[in-house]
Amino acid sequence: xxxxxxAAPLSVPLWTPGVxxxxxxxxxxxxxxxxxxxxxxxxxTNLSQTSPWGIWVAIDVATGVALxxxxxxxxxxxxxxxxxxxxxxTRPALLTAMxxxxxxxxxxxxxxxxxWAIWHPIIYWQGNSVLxxxxxxxxxxxxxxxxxxxxxxxxxxxDRVRLPGPLSILxxxxxxxxxxxxxxxxxxxxxxxxxxxxxxxxxxSGLGSLMLIAPTKLHPLWYTPILxxxxxxxxxxxxxxxxxxxxxxxxxxxxxxDETPVLSALSRYTVILLGVYGxxxxxxxxxxxxxxxxxxxxxxxxxxxxxxxxxxxLPFFLLLKPSVRKSRRGLFISACLIIFGVVLNRLNVFLxxxxxxxxxxxxxxxxxxxxxxxxxxxxxxFLYRLLVTYLPVLTPRNHSHTTTACDGALLQxxxxxx
Amino acid sequence: MNRRAFLKWAAAGxxxxxxxxxxxxxxxxxxxxxxxxxxxDLTRCVGCRKCxxxxxxxxxxxxxxTPFDDLVVFDRHRRxxxxxxxxxxxxxxxxxDDRGQLVPTFVKVQCMxxxxxxxxxxxxVGALTKKTNGAVHYxxxxxxxxxxxxxxxxxxxxxxxYTDPITPRVRKCTFCFERISQEGGLPGCAAICxxxxxxxxxxxxxxxxxxxRIQENPTRYIDSIYGATEVxxxxxxxxxxxxxxxxxxxxxxxxxxxxxxxxxxxxxxxYFWAPxxxxxxxxxxxxxxxxxxxxxxxxxxxxxx
Lengths: 418, 305
Ligand code: SF4
Ligand code: SF4
Ligand code: SF4
Description:
The complex is a heterodimer.
Chain A lengths: L16 H23 L1 H4 L10 H13 L2 H11 L6 H25 L8 H4 L6 H28 L13 H39 L17 H27 L6 H28 L11 H22 L1 H5 L1 H25 L14 H24 L14 H13 L1
Helix pairs in contact in A: 1-14, 3-5, 3-13, 3-14, 4-5, 4-8, 4-9, 5-7, 5-14, 7-8, 8-9, 9-10, 9-13, 10-11, 10-15, 11-13
Chain B lengths: L2 H14 L4 H4 L11 E6 L8 H9 L28 E10 L5 E8 L8 H5 L5 E3 L5 E3 L9 H5 L6 E2 L9 E2 L5 H5 L6 H5 L5 E5 H14 L19 E4 L19 H11 L3 H16 L6 H5 L6
The complex binds iron/sulfur cluster (3 copies).
């Protein structure tokens, strides 16, 4: 494996100032998590009988899952649709997805009242419950992600498993496991790649179906029978922007290859997806006759407009310009706007647009809730940093640059663009 | 949104998520056909709060902060809480009696025990179930505390023990499930009511009784039975002398709340046809665009992730 596609561990020191900042961000969150398990949810959160769900569900779970969509969208593009030119960005996207999904049950353990019972859905099936469907798909998909990630671990540690200290008695077993995984997974990986894409589609849309059970509580700007479709489309649309966003962050602090050509090629798909999503959003409120609510000068109408104009149409028009698509900064700004739009959409559906009858006061997250969410995000970033340091995920800079088949393919994609 | 627009979108949503509009239309749901119910006659209730007291006793709830005979609680409208499964509220609708005094109307609030309950449809583990006798029953041993039932309930009934760190429960009126499961058993509140404002019986019988009372005394009652059709019907029914919307009752659709979600859900997941179709479709695409040169596989090995 030579040339620009050789992902490799980054030989950079782990304990940089940035990493210490991440750790500092985690500490208050852990204190609040402790407080939650001593004093109950009431001690830490602003949840109430009329606001049963707060940002731990809306951000940590619903938004987190949407933003992890880079994993299945790049996998679909590179491996299902055979656009192998994009393989270079599948590994980091896969890693982000894996970390994102790993943190869903962790966030849920903190949020649900009976954390020790979190496994109950595995034996108490309730097929009518949308939440059950989402939970099952997330559990399965998380495992699929681990399987998809295993070859990366095998590639690095096969033939050189050296566990420290007493763990070394496991060396043989782990070695064997990696050997077998390496040999067999290659041949059956397509099963898991397809399963991953299907499971993602199912639960990304399922997240939208969650609120269909509350027709009298969710504001008409968002309550629509096509909510599952809108959630699915927006998740697919935010997949590549997430890859762009991550890559920009990673290359700002790590010595990795400049992937701008790959990313600008990716962004062409985003324009289409975003366009379709935007048109559907507008058509939806028009067909349902909900557009009138936009004229009410209320938080909901304002939030909806920002979501649509700033989060969908602005990046759409930006990305229509080839100059924006070709520049790193243009790509990054557009990606940020799209991500903002999806985050705001999830917040709107789960919090802003959700109004219980008899509510005496609205919901606004407490310091504790914000601190825990911050800590979880910092933990994901820390693990990302840790894993790319030791595993071949990113492509380090200064590799001898030989033109490979993939480069050729990318050049063609690029030509198709202009 | 009218029905046509809904179907149009359901079809679009279904088709795009690989659902089919014909299946998405869904079959009629199974609801208990001869459940028990309670008829609350608001024209009879005198606001004595004996039902609150009885409910507290039969459910072993903690003593209230203000005693049950203290009328000061009527000064604000209360909601059921983890410690009180039912509350009585006082409303003044502006009606005056012969001497010009404002006439209060008292309204008892508790779980409506919906015929097709949103909470039951939502619950991830089936901790909430609709029993054949009409009660919507909560099984704490299954509950994981996700609070999706609270998101779902259109009446905002389930209450949560937010201060319990490890074993919080969802709390709501049980319809005195154990008591009414016994021959001749009555809910605590219905049994104690001194003015017979609460009548317990088969829901069908109660509906007839309600209609009869309204017919026989059209000046006393408004011509409406709350709970007859709301969200597909509820086991608890109310008749009143005042319009319900002035008494804190919500105006709700007559379509059962779970229908939209379940129609879409079942449309997509029936026999797993949509996920399987998608799997097949993607598989076919993957196969047709696979790299033609076999050597590529080993070249790409690490990237096949
Ligand atoms: S009123 Fe609410 S809690 Fe009671 S049965 Fe209906 S949906 Fe469930
Ligand atoms: S909180 Fe308990 S009863 Fe309510 S939906 Fe969740 S698991 Fe079911
Ligand atoms: S039916 Fe039982 S639990 Fe429900 S309000 Fe009456 S006494 Fe309380």
